[in-house]
Amino acid sequence: QKEVEQDPGPLSVPEGAIVSLNCTYSNSAFQYFMWYRQYSRKGPELLMYTYSSGNKEDGRFTAQVDKSSKYISLFIRDSQPSDSATYLCATETSGSRLTFGEGTQLTVNP
Amino acid sequence: KAGVTQTPRYLIKTRGQQVTLSCSPISGHRSVSWYQQTPGQGLQFLFEYFSETQRNKGNFPGRFSGRQFSNSRSEMNVSTLELGDSALYLCASSSPKGASSYEQYFGPGTRLTVT
Question: How far apart are CA B70 and CA B42, in angstroms?
């Protein structure tokens, strides 16, 4: 079983839609969870991270962690064409080592 | 504040050759991690250096090695290149809090093509 699993999509939505991106993880010991955005031919950009359970909001983005079900989510409100990118979830699995999901390719259509 | 820089951005090598990639972290960051990104395997951790010492290592063969200098700049080396080493190599820097380095900031990557 993979340590972090993510549906690769692709996901296509109209502009203005609410987008929900999800990952599951295998080990209840994982504490830190991150979301990265990666545009084509660029390096991943850290969007936000959360510690343990709960929600964290930053503008149109909300990250959510449910430790009881080992589920992490990223919600994007009022999605824009500029949000079109690959979204990667990640967790810190061992010290400084990040383990990533496969990434979900998102397209927001004008 | 300048971001993570990686050089070169693109590289084409032949099987059997060796290659060295360079990474300059964000000023003040002392931890540098390296990752390999391929379409089939996604992003995979190679190793992490902190204060010139390798602190963590992923599951890659010994052909992959790295080092860190006193100014926190890091290099990774791949010897005896194979076709499967073609990938985007990403460097990330962070300012660790204890053993954790969860706020990792990535550079643009070096795209290596092995022919």
Answer: 31
Residue type, B59: N
Contact A109, A19 (CB under 8 A): no
Q: Where are the beta strands (DSSP E) in chain B?
A: 5-7, 10-13, 19-24, 31-38, 42-50, 53-57, 64-68, 74-78, 87-94, 105-106, 110-114
Residue B97 confidence class, pLDDT cut points 50, 70, 90: low
C-alpha atoms less than 13 angstroms from C-alpha of B35 in its C-beta half-sphere: 25
Least CB–CB distance from B100: residue in A32, A44, A46: A32
b/e per residue B14-37 (b: at least 16 CB within 10 A): eeeeebebebbbbeebbbbbbbbb
Give residue B107's identity as a one-letter amino acid code. Answer: G
User: Do A49 and B109 make contact, defined as CB atoms within 8 angstroms?
Assistant: no
Is the pLDDT at B98 greater than 80? The verdict is no
| 3-class state of residue B21 by DSSP | strand
- Kindly report the average pLDDT of chain B as a whole number: 93
User: What pLDDT score was predicted for residue A31?
Assistant: 86
- Give A1's pLDDT tier (boundaries 50, 70, 90): confident
Pairing of strands B31-38, B64-68: unpaired
pLDDT of residue B96: 67
- Is B31 in Cβ contact with A95 (below 8 Å)? no
